[in-house]
Amino acid sequence: PGEGPFPNPATVGEILTRFLDISGLPKPEVLESLAGSCPDQDQRNLLLGMASRATGHALYDGFMVKQKRGLIEVLDECPSLQLTMSKLVEVCPRLQPRYYSISSAGLTSPDQLHVTCTVVREKQYGGRVFEGVCSTYISKLEVGDNVRCFTRTTGFKLPLMPSIPVILIGAGAGIAPLRGMMQHLDGVRRQRRRIGQNMLVFGCRRRDEDFLYEDEILGHTRDGTLSHLLTAFSREGSEKHYVQDEIRAKATEFLTVLNMGASVYVCGAGDMAAEVRRAIVQVLMKHVGASEEKATRFVDTMRKQGRYMQDVW
After folding, report:
1. Are strands 129-131 and 166-171 parallel, antiparallel or unpaired?
2. Cα 144 to Cα 124: distance, rounded to the nearest angstrom
3. CA distance 205 to 50
4. In angstroms, what is the C-alpha Rg of the chain?
5. Of 170, 196, 180, 188, whose CA–CA distance to 265 is shortest?
């Protein structure tokens, strides 16, 4: 006998909560496999219809993907489905790790590891609420609880020389790794070592709603860890104003730091990162006089040199 999929012994509760992703989206072939255990004809046809390679894509996308249904919801929709524990283990995907950027610095918090997490809780059709597996788990932790986690290496790192300026650009929970960077630079400053002219460009919906770590960030501006702070609150004005808009609006200040040889770090959603890159190209075109091709090549060169890094999802 080979190695089992779970530690032995393991209770059913442990298997369902620690090893099987019962909230995950079942693939069409899983639905096809489950149909054979569904005696009700209409319910079986629903599963087979979503699994059909010829016609099932639209049905699967509308019924499963857009409404974020997992195996539990499939069981609710198909109550005649006779799902044994062995069948569940066979068809259910294994719970995969969720990766979060560390939002603290080893220099200032050597015995702690901070995580900045948005709790995913979304209303779905029919009043059902979809809850993110890991974010919900984290939100329910109590002081003293043990957490199963591990760390891995990343290339999203500050320059080796703290005197090199950095431009940190993030929105919402994208502040996570940038916070760790600011804490590290603050620790370097407290050691009376020279740091560069550093800028943070941060965006959220409203200052009084989700300006994460506001007091800490403002403290960095007062003590000199941050020389420049640009903020974009997208829901406070008559028009939406995002970090890319703030970069365009404060182009002169942005270019002042960039021209010092700054390294740029962008963290957030992929769409935001693309818009930030586009805004930087536009700033170079408008205020430096570069052509679009030359401005784009400048940013690409920064990326190849390790001076333009992204941590996106």
Report:
1. unpaired
2. 34
3. 38
4. 24
5. 170
Which residues 6+ apart lie within 8 Å of 260 measured at CB? 165, 196, 197
Task: Render pLDDT for 91-122 as a digit per residue (tens, 0 to 9).
Answer: 888 899 999 999 999 999 999 999 999 999 98
- What is the per-residue pLDDT across 175-193, written as a single tens digit (0 to 9) for each? 999 999 999 999 999 999 9
Q: Is the pTM of this model over 0.85?
A: yes
The C-alpha atoms of residue 140 and residue 129 are separated, in whole angstroms, by 17
Q: List, for residues 22-37, the tens digit of each pLDDT value.
A: 888 999 999 999 999 9
DSSP 3-state of 46: helix
pLDDT digits (tens, 9 = 90+) for 54-90: 888 999 999 999 988 889 899 999 999 999 998 998 8
| Residues taking part in catalysis | 101, 267, 311, 313
Task: For residue 166, report the phi and psi dihedrals to the nearest 5 degrees.
Answer: -130, 145
Q: Cβ atoms within 10 A of the Cβ of 204, count?
A: 24
Q: Which among 123, 24, 118, 98 is positioned nearest to 65, based on CA atoms? A: 24
pLDDT at 139 over 90: yes
Mean pLDDT, range 195-200, rounded to an integer: 98
> Distances in Å between the alpha carbon of 253 and those of 118, 195, 222, 257?
31, 18, 18, 7
Distance between first and last Cα of the chain: 40
Q: How buried is 41 (Cβ within 10 angstroms: 0-12 exposed, 13-18 middle, 19+ buried)?
A: exposed
Alpha-carbon distance of 257 to 191, in angstroms, equals 23
Count of C-beta atoms within a 10 Å radius of residue 186: 21
